[in-house]
């Protein structure tokens, strides 16, 4: 499942910040009068068009809009090999809050001070409009054969927009030709709960509610503390992941961020306006009224939520594994695998299908090189090496002889002791080995794709996934006649590939009325959705209908019209349709 994150530029701060650039030098874009194109930089203009590797020591600075608590300054096993092979060290800074990098990037835009490269997520448009990132088109063409090979016929999808067809970032959070073999999101229930209740059916909201209600009635306390049937994380942007996104997931719509797009007309509207979604929030309202939804849901912070998960007393979650993984890892480390979570595709009723595995094609967040970088050729060559077969195996599998071995038949295998630590002590495993830590630093093939040796590029393939499961998971899956969690979900071939890709990654205007209205509507959503959920059931309709009226009063309809035109332009760019 893909992460759903903010696309809005939420705050422009007027204070400045100094961030180290390439070699300690920064290029203030406010004083840069040249075109924002790599061909206009000295390094790109004067460099020979070859792909030979310079392995002399060099440090590139980097900012990532996601938190990365296990980053070990490249002193892990994989990082050391990367530096040994390429001479490159990454001086990385990651977002430490819950704002998805927006506030920090706001400072950068205000000051013009940026690192050499960035993983900006939804704030890329702000950097583009500020003239702080360079066009990668010529650099890729001249110096990046691996990038061109991997993206292939999808290179057109790397273009920024119909009006500006430069390439400002290379999508690295998505795997090309991805085949998903497992599900890591949906509606979660602790496996001890399912076992005690005889593995009941979990397909609809009513099913899910009954499981939680029945179990808490039997066990009002867990390890001496009150049992929590369901807890959600509404801290900052994560309200989207656990509170609002499930509204479209349970009602048969794909993940298009804050919008629903009609697949026939490409008309976009805020997804909250769909009548079916109102019924989802009514269900949450009912859960709260019955005492089944954690009373602290809308006041607790991210760390408090994860601590509750780690305590083992939260029976149910509605989320993505990456969002609550720190808490679950603590349970695994304590040997409480039966307190970890099963994944189900729960819907409002039987008439809907969960669209978690509807494919978007090649589209996603990625790496941009900024105007501060003094040697973009060296950096694009490094990103290209990171996209090579050698580096993809290193990033995904680790170091041969340490994190994996190759048997007599030439098949890569993960030793049992390594797999045990990877599964049950993942935080320390990642910090020590670096496996999975460097995936955003380069293009890569997705799960299910094999390299020239006949091995999978990634470790996420059926046999390895099953091998990574705990005994509790295997027992639970067997009870539901499944081998992996994905077996419980509708597969990719149940839906067409979305022509507009991942709309959370689509550039939107960073000035004018769009951002003003978007910010207003987000403020309304984050205030009124909790209000509706916490209201008396008799008042729910009045509160929710007032919420929808307030959105339109703030200008939502004008914003939706503008977004619709952007969707149509993107479909036209990518498919050649005349819309």
Annotation keywords:
D-Maltodextrin-Binding Protein, domain 2; alpha+beta; 579 residues; four-stranded mixed beta sheet; 15 strands; five-stranded mixed beta sheet; 3 domains; disordered N terminus
Task: Give a summary of the structure in a few sentences.
By secondary structure, the protein is α+β, with helices and mostly antiparallel strands. Helix content is about 40%, strand content about 10%.
Number of strands: 15
- Radius of gyration, Cα only, in angstroms? 24 Å
The count of domains is: 3
* Overall geometric form: globular
Average pLDDT, all residues: 90
Percent helix: 25-40%
Task: List segments where confidence is low: pLDDT < 50 over at least 5 consecutive residues.
Answer: 1-49
CATH topology description of the largest domain: D-Maltodextrin-Binding Protein, domain 2
Strand order of the largest sheet: 2-1-3-13-4
Main beta-sheet strand count, sense and barrel state? 5 strands, mixed
Structure description:
The structure is a single chain. The protein is of the alpha+beta class. The chain folds into three domains: 22-178 and 362-433, D-Maltodextrin-Binding Protein, domain 2; 185-257 and 275-359 and 467-494, Periplasmic binding protein-like II (D-Maltodextrin-Binding Protein, domain 2); 503-575, no CATH class. It contains 21 helices and 15 strands. It has helices at 42-46, 77-86, 102-111, 124-129, 137-143, 145-151, 191-196, 205-218, 238-249, 275-289, 302-311, 321-333, 376-385, 389-397, 416-424, 426-433, 462-468, 471-479, 513-534, 540-553, 556-575, and strands at 58-64, 88-94, 117-119, 170-171, 185-190, 221-222, 225-226, 228-230, 259-261, 268-270, 314-320, 341-344, 366-369, 405-406, 412-413. The strands form five sheets. It has a five-stranded mixed β-sheet. Strands 8-11-5-12 form a four-stranded mixed β-sheet, sandwiched between helices. It has a two-stranded antiparallel ribbon with strand order 6-7. A hairpin with a 2-residue loop joins strand 6 and strand 7 (225-226). Helix 9 (238-249) packs across helix 10. The longest helix is centred in the C-terminal third of the chain and has 22 residues, at 513-534. It is globular, with a radius of gyration of 24 Å. Residues 1-49 have low confidence and may be disordered.
